């Protein structure tokens, strides 16, 4: 290996490490919202050991196949964290179990749970109500000051048929308690899925690429001519 390729490889390696660590840290920050770790005899703890997850701070992480995302948050236990508001659960949108009980939370917007399509067990202080309303859950119960919202109901037609609430050429997909979104079916894209065909990457990007190459050539040629005439 020449020293140059060696250097290039090292630079690429360090860039990769930097990129990986920064993403990794940003994603797991929520797991260290407060002290302590997930305990065995809690809702999240039981879920984590039964699903062969790994505990990290207040999270249960699950290893996935893909090398791009080495793990996702499947459980989040922020109980007894002295939180008085929850602004964002974006990084835990893959969670199946979320425990926010024993916190002095005054209110919590339904939008916080938008995107949490996998959420199946949600524990809240009993002064609150289940996001999306009771109708968005199979069972709603209160015990020992904890509100348990269990079994998220899909807003979509269970059979996965084209939903009446979604425009033509799109399918309804669950998007968290009380939420749904409309995904264009294969072969359609754009506003209200009205455009037929794949997104035209080639048509959109090749003129750009062509223009860039042409401009570079022109610049190069003029520079060369200047250099020659000097
Ligand atoms: C968390 O732990 C650190 C170090 O153990 C301590 O200094 C800090 O006061 C703790 N914070 C809370 C909110 O308990
Ligand atoms: C992991 O990869 C195997 C084989 O490639 C595949 O069968 C399996 O469904 C994947 N599991 C997940 C969780 O993606
Ligand atoms: C909450 O945390 C405090 C210490 O921070 C502890 O004394 C108390 O027992 C905890 N309560 C529950 C219900 O876990
Ligand atoms: C919580 O309640 C306060 C006061 O009633 C209100 O100003 C605030 O917008 C509410 N926050 C959310 C997230 O609903
Ligand atoms: C939702 O269900 C809980 C538990 O059964 C009940 O206490 C609460 O009043 C219900 N909320 C509404 C808006 O019906
Ligand atoms: C689902 O959609 C199909 C076709 O649009 C309809 O016949 C059926 O009644 C729907 N089922 C429910 C549970 O909404």
From TrEMBL:
PROSITE patterns: EGF_1 (PS00022), EGF_2 (PS01186), EGF_3 (PS50026). GO terms for biological process: positive regulation of osteoblast differentiation. The chain crosses the membrane at residues 201-221. Keywords: Disulfide bond, EGF-like domain, Membrane, Signal, Transmembrane, Transmembrane helix. Residues 157-194 form the EGF-like domain. Disulfide bonds join 184-193. It comes from the Eukaryota. Coiled coil: none annotated. Residues 1-25 form the signal peptide. This is EGF-like domain-containing protein. It comes from Muraenolepis orangiensis.
């Amino acid at each position: 290996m020449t020293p140059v390729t060696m250097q290039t490889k090292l630079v690429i390696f360090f860039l990769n490490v930097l990129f990986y660590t920064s993403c990794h840290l940003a994603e797991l920050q929520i797991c260290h919202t407060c002290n302590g770790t997930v305990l065995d005899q809690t809702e999240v703890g039981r879920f984590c050991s039964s699903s062969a997850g790994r505990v990290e701070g207040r999270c249960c992480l699950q290893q996935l196949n893909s090398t791009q995302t080495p793990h996702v948050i499947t459980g989040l236990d922020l109980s007894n964290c002295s939180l008085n508001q929850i602004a964002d659960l974006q990084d835990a949108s893959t969670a199946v179990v979320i425990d926010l009980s024993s916190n002095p939370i005054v209110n919590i917007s339904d939008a916080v749970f938008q995107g949490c399509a996998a959420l199946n067990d949600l524990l809240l202080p009993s002064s609150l109500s289940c996001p999306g309303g009771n109708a968005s859950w199979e069972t709603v119960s209160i015990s020992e000051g904890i509100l348990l919202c269990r079994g998220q109901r899909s807003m979509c037609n269970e059979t996965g048929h084209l939903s009446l609430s979604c425009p033509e050429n799109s399918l309804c997909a669950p998007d968290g308690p009380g939420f749904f979104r409309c995904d264009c079916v294969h072969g359609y894209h754009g506003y209200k899925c009205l455009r037929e065909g794949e997104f035209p990457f080639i048509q959109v990007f090749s003129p750009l690429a062509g223009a860039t190459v042409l401009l570079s050539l022109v610049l190069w040629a003029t520079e060369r001519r200047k250099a020659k005439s000097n």
